[in-house]
Amino acid sequence: QVHLVESGGGLVQPGGSLRLSCVASGSIVSIGTMGWYRQAPGKQRELVAVVRSDGSTKYADSVKDRFSISRDDVKKTVSLQMNSLKPEDTAIYYCQAVIGVAAGSYDHWGQGTQVTVSS
User: Which of 108, 74, 75 is nearest to 94 (CA)?
Assistant: First the structure.
């Protein structure tokens, strides 16, 4: 069984910074693309940023130049550094990863961590 556990969410003022982290554990054979998604109240879940196994990245236009995603394959972690936060960044942030186990590769999700940007 595989688990993804996020940490680092919280309340921050506009213009502030937060760093989210997610660690994968379990019977992991390999890890493919890892990413962060978010869902604001009344809205659909949306992609924030992904980092592929080759290190290439993709960002939503709304977070480019403010957020930075990184991964550590030894520690099985993916992190999201969020700077210059805006109230519209308020959402539940979910960690996602394509994880290979003995039976194949599957999409896994964390339980989510709340990020609130407010003065």
Answer: 108
Contact 97, 84 (CB under 8 A): no
Q: Where does residue 106 fall: left (phi above 0), alpha (psi -120 to 50 degrees), or beta otherwise?
A: beta
Q: Mind listing the pLDDT tens digit for each residue in 45-102? A: 999 999 999 999 999 999 999 999 999 999 999 999 999 999 999 999 999 999 999 8
3-state secondary structure 1-50: CEEEEEECCEEECCCCCEEEEEEEEECCCEEEEEEEEEECCCCCCEEEEE
User: Residue type at 16?
Assistant: G
What 3-state DSSP class applies to 92?
A: strand
